[in-house]
Amino acid sequence: MRVLIRYGVVVLAIAIGATMLIWPVATGFVEDWARRDVEMRSRLVYSAARDPIETLREAGDEAGLTRLMERIGQDDGVVAVALCENGVVRAGSPAMPAEFRCSHTPANGSSLSIVTFEDARLLVSAYSLGEGSDQVTLVVMHDDQEIEARLSRARLFIILAAIGIAFGGAALASLFAYLVMRRWTISVRQAIEDARAGRPEESGGASTMIGEEIRKTLAELDFVRHSIDAAHTEWSPETLRLALANELPGSEVIVVSNREPYIHNRLEDGTIQLQRPASGLVSALEPVTRACGGVWIAHGSGTADRDTVDSDDRVMVPPSNPSYALRRLWLTEEEQEGYYYGFANEGLWPLCHIAFVRPVFRESDWRMYREVNRRFAEAVAAEARRPDPIVLIQDYHLALAPRMIRERLPEATIVTFWHIPWPNSETFGICPYKEDIIDGLLGSSILGFHTQFHCNNFIETVDRFVESRIDREEASITLRGHETFVRPYPISIEWPPAAMANQKPVEEARVAVRERLGLPEDVRLGVGIERFDYTKGILDRMRAVDALLTTHPEWRERFCFLQAAAPTRSKLSNYRTLQEEAEALAQDINARHGGPFPVIQLVARHHDPEEVFELFRAGDLCIVSSLHDGMNLVAKEFVAARDDERGVLILSAFAGASRELNEALIVNPYDAYAMGEAIARALEMDEAEQRERMHTMRQQVQSRNVYRWAGQMLLDAAHLRKKQRIMRLMDKAGQA
Ligand code: F6P
Residue 231 to residues 217, 239, 242, 271: CA-CA distances in angstroms? Predict the structure, then answer.
């Protein structure tokens, strides 16, 4: 449109310029033509009057001459006529000016001369009559206003014609430009199609340099995904670094999450202890950030966090081999209450997980949530060294941050990953702030979920509550002109896991753990390891152990279940109650199925990754019985820990991981009896079957590791950036 207007304006300017140029020529021409016309009419008067004048003169009929003059004087355009004879007026029409003298007469037949009388300016022409000794002249006088009137009419005509030509020309030029642009756009589309289909350029295609550049960029675009995905089936920190260097050269990566990857705590003896939090988010993202470098902004929650940062609130991590900066953000008690415990964990967490815990929404929590999201957005803007960083926003704590960051850094590529499930639109509809949350998330360039199912739920939710344009084929949502792509990225773990580096052989781990738990060597061990969260189905798996021992008493005194659970969000009553219930249930089961050792051993404390992996290696089976889970990385860690290809995974159908780890024994955690039967089946499974299942799952986790997860998001970000570059090029071409 802008181009068309521009064409129109140019043509208009040309028309105005041309009019100004032809103006003097045209008006001169009209004046000349008007004069000639007057002359011609004077000559006609003379031709018509010559003979009657001769006759009347010869007859000496003075009255006749006067009447003749009077009649001629009434001719159209004639003001007056006079008959001069030997320099004296012999007869004249009534309108002849009193001051007229025959001396005013121009030479015979000459062109007009202008004579100014008291009342008027007249155009005077004279014609000689007779060939005798007398000098007789007919003088014809026309009004010079007549020429002026003609000139005015001519000027008006020229102006109208110029306007008409200008507008007509502008319209034609715009139409022409539109047709050319349309053809160009079709050509560019064709170029895009050709490039996508790998067809060579046909003559007559988008042959402009811009078209060429677009083709090249598109070729690069498709190469990105194909080459990286095909060439590097094994994603590693190296391939991730390579992908970043090749596809996003010079880019700045900023990770943002609530939970920090390294927590510094001060112990009672005054020393500082470094803790790696029990967080799926951290275990996935930490190795990725190590590979990519950059800055990770997170809440500094440790008691010694302030003592370990520099003046910019930064500390380089990992401490053993620093590769990225951890920028800590300080939150007051009040902020943590409202934003983290309140809105995030009493509102959004139960809202998004189907665990039948009622979400709580408080206006004061919501205000704090908004405020803390704003603080995170400001920290991102302050950390950014370029106007277009790649910002990787993590999880439900920061739903409003994408929009807030977009407002501060409009050119940023914002990739948001939602680590928990997204419920159906009906469930999400109970959230009083649903529109704001959706609006916040749609500030992202790309919004990721673990599964296609959660992507679909999100799109349906947007469709139901927000006025936007949804492209289901592209899986994108456009809100107020900004497009967000919604994509599934199944999260995973690093391969090989760092915690595997110093593990002792499986046999040694079995012996060591059994010793610690006071178990005879031949006792079979089941393990469950996670945060003490009501979504994890910890009570349900205890009930399954109960069901197993009830239905299969032969396993009494031959089976023990170790539940390692890290206390989490303990300020919230739901979490405290869960821990109390779990302890009571364990006691009850142990009492009923008691023997030389407790059947259920509950260890409620934080375990470092190395300890977790040792437990995985010592177990005969692992139970992951989430009532609802985005992915669940414990399941993948168990598989990664078993390089002996032994052990059985019992996995909830309601964890995202069950979509990938099909060789696990898939269970419904709400069905204690069936889960008990699954435990029995696992305990009875022969080595060959265990090996076969574990081998396939290990291949799956190895190839679809966390570097692939991050790599796909970053490649999509690169893809998007290139697409935006094309749009800018097309825009430029449109303006050219
Ligand atoms: O599963 C959602 C999640 O944020 C994970 O990403 C993380 O593992 C866990 O919750 C940690 O919770 P918190 O940070 O509250 O301890």
Answer: 20, 10, 12, 48
**Is 60 exceeded by the pLDDT of residue 232?**
no
pLDDT tens column, 281-301: 898 899 889 999 999 999 999
* 634 contact partners, CB below 8 Å, separation of at least 6: 280, 529, 530, 622, 624
Question: End-to-end alpha-carbon separation of the chain, Å?
Answer: 12
CB-ligand 1 contact for 450 (6 Å cutoff): no
DSSP string covering 121-190, please?
EEEEEEEEE-SSSS-EEEEEEEETHHHHHHHHHHHHHHHHHHHHHHHHHHHHHHHHHHHHHHHHHHHHHH
Q: How far is the CA of 566 from the centre of ligand 1 (A)?
A: 12
Fold of 2-230: Beta-Lactamase (3.30.450)
Q: What are phi and psi of 165, to 5 degrees?
A: -65, -40
Q: How many CB atoms lie within 10 A of CB 489?
A: 21
Q: Which ligand 1 atom minimizes the distance to the CA of 283?
A: 8
The 8-class DSSP code of residue 727 comes to H
286: CA distance to ligand 1 center in Å? 14
CATH architecture of 243-488: 3-Layer(aba) Sandwich (3.40)
What lies within 8 Å, CB to CB, of 151 at 6+ separation is: 27, 30, 31, 34
Place 229 in a pLDDT band, splitting at 50, 70 and 90: low
**Considering only CA atoms, which residue is closest to atom 6 of ligand 1?**
281
CB distance 346 to ligand 1 below 6 Å: no
2-230 and 504-704 have identical folds: no
624: left (phi over 0), alpha (psi -120 to 50) or beta: beta
pLDDT at 181: 58
Give the position, in ligand 1's atom list, of the atom nearest the Cα of 258.
Answer: 14
DSSP 493-533: --SS-GGGTTPPPHHHHHHHHHHHHT--TT-EEEEEEEES-
| Segment 542-570 mean pLDDT | 98
Answer whether 0.90 is exceeded by the pTM. no
Assign domain 504-704 to its CATH superfamily: Glycogen Phosphorylase B; (3.40.50.2000)
Q: Is 42 left (phi over 0), alpha (psi -120 to 50) or beta?
A: alpha
pLDDT tens by residue, 422-442:
999 999 999 999 999 999 999
In the chain, domain spans: 2-230, 243-488, 504-704
Give, using CA atoms, the residue closest to atom 15 of ligand 1. Answer: 569
E-strand ranges in 575-663 read: 600-603, 621-624, 648-652
Q: Is the pLDDT of residue 227 over 50?
A: no
Position 670 pLDDT exceeds 90: yes
In angstroms, what is the span from residue 426 Cα to ligand 1's centroid? 24
Is the shortest distance between the CB of 510 and ligand 1 below 6 Å? Answer: no
In which residue are the tokens 């022969």 written? 686
Question: Is the pLDDT reported for residue 544 higher than 90?
Answer: yes
pLDDT confidence of residue 201:
47
Q: Is 395 in the pocket of ligand 1 (CB under 6 A)?
A: yes
> Residue 383: is its pLDDT beyond 90?
yes
Cα(204) to ligand 1 centroid in Å equals 56
Residue 47 pLDDT more than 60? yes
3-state secondary structure 455-488: HHHHHHHHHHHCCCEEECCCCEEEECCEEEEEEE
Check pLDDT > 50 for residue 717.
Answer: yes
Q: Is the pLDDT of residue 26 over 80?
A: no
Average pLDDT of the segment spanning 382-410: 98
pLDDT at 1 over 70: no
List all residues 6 or more positions away from 378 whose beta carbon is below 8 Å from its beta carbon. Answer: 408
Give the CA diameter of the chain: 167
Q: Are 121 and 114 in contact (CB under 8 A)?
A: yes
